[in-house]
Every structure is written in C-alpha cells, then in structure tokens.
Amino acid sequence: MIEATEVRKRYGTVDALDGVSLSVPSGASLGLVGTNGAGKTTLFRLLVGHEAPDAGSVRVAGIDPTDGTRVRERVGYLPEDAGFQPALTGEEVLGFYADMRGVEAPRVDTLLSVVGLPDAGDRPVGGYSNGMNRRLGLAVALLGDPDVLLLDEPTAGLDPAGVDAFNRVVERVREERDVTVVLSTHVLSEVEALCDRVAVLDDGALRTVGTVEEVTRAAGDEVTVTAEYGDGDALAAATESVQAALAGRNSDPDVSAGELTLELAVDSAAVTDALGAVVETDPESVRVDEPDLETAVREAVAPGGADR
C-alpha cells in the first residue's frame, strides 16, 4: 500500500531523509518512531503529497502523492498541528471538509459517533478539550473512507485519559475498516498497543524495520534477573550462593552486585535456572526484565546500532 524507494529530501544543508526505503503492506499498522529531527514529519509530508522528494520515489496505493486529487481520495491525514476555527461547531468543521471532498452529509454524523463525539457536534470546537480536537481531526481524516490513514504524533500533548480515548478510537477503526495505518509517535507503548510493524528513523536514515516482535528480538535474547536484599551480608552470601549454584551450567550468567542488589544477565533459555538459584537465597524482591521495544529502539539509534 505504501512504497518508498531510496527517498532523499534536503533542506539547505540538512539531509532530512537520506536514502529511505520503506514498504508497508495493505492492512498493516506501522509505528514510525524516532527522536525530534529524525525525519518522521518529512516522510509524512512526502506520503501525503505536500512535498516531493529530491530523489527516489514514493507511491501510496499505487499513486504518486503529488497527484493531489487522486491521493486525497485514498489517504486520510492527521497532521501534528491540525487546528480548526474555534467558532465553528464540530458538525460545521466536518461539513466544510465533506463539501471539499464531495462526501455525503450523513457521513458527518456517523463519523462523529465513530470518534466518540456524538453529543458534541453542535458545540463550538473552541470549547473542545485537546483530546476532543484530536478526535475531530481523526474524523476529518476518515472522510471519504480512505485506504491509508497517516497519523502524525496524534496524541502529543494529551493527558493519559485523552491518549487512551484516542487510541481506543484508532483500535476500533482498525477492527472495522480495511485501512492501512502509519502512526508517527514518541510513545513506544502506543506502537506496541496499536501497531504490528515498527520502523525506526534516526538522523534521516531508516535504522531498522520489521514486525514489533522481530525488532524487539533483534535487541538480543538477554534477560535480566534483579534481586534486592536487606543488608550487605545477605547480598554477599546470595552472590556467592548463586554463583556456586550456577557454576558449570549452561546458564553461565553475568552476575554483578550493586548496593543491596544482585543482577544476573542470562539467555532466555537459562532464566528458569537463574531464577531458581536466586529464589533459594530468600531475597526481599525479585524482578525479571525481558528485552523490550524501548531497548530495541535505543540500540538501533546508538552508534554501531542496526544498519549503521
């Protein structure tokens, strides 16, 4: 549904995108992550046709995004800074954009319900909360029943309740419609909740891409077992006991002791042995940390990380 090939975009002396190639299958949900300045918004502007690449090619649903009329029929876009005239009601905002896109009026009421604003359509949007405004923006993006939905930092600035409400709407849209979603965000928990694929941009380059599971697994197969003890003597005894219990086993953990804390780094296959040895020392608490998406993203953008 989305195909970007060796895309380059430069602003002055800055390479906003430096040879980015990305493919998003129909019906997939892709989380596009990276720090500020990584190139996420630039890529979105190319996908929606607001700008053209300096080199390379971009296709959305087989269409050149700079073909404005055709791409608007297939793509819904929610920009990070979407804003509406505060004096207009929610219904008037949607009606305005519906007229621009030739969408029938009944669709407006339906979309207000879809985004959780069925009783707010007659209210001026100047009185909407940030979360309500973002959901109204999503309703605008859904006008015309698009094949592709581009959401640029859709929950930026929202409180936890607003984030949760917005994400529930996106989940429902994905369940009910055959739509391809690309979500740009700093919030990795959103990617894990809403997306089946993830792409990491850094300094204008694509560092890694794949399913969330594939990218997470690429961070390594190492699991950390952390145990806390009440005093230094207990910690010293536990460290000696754990090292003796695991000596010569395939576990062969990397054991380190901090201030009242014992930490073991082991392969996932050895977690049971390591955890059993730790529990035998009667710690005050035990925590097991598996590789996660945050670790994977951090490693991908670090010097020497993925694709560097």
TrEMBL record:
InterPro entries with a match to the protein in the record: AAA+_ATPase (IPR003593), ABC_transporter-like_ATP-bd (IPR003439), P-loop_NTPase (IPR027417)
Superkingdom, natural source: Archaea
One term of GO molecular function: ATP binding
Keywords of this entry: ATP-binding, Nucleotide-binding, Transport
Pfam families membership: ABC_tran
Residue stretches making up the ABC transporter domain: 2-228
Similarity comment: Belongs to the ABC transporter superfamily.
Protein name: ABC transporter ATP-binding protein
Gene source species: Halosimplex pelagicum
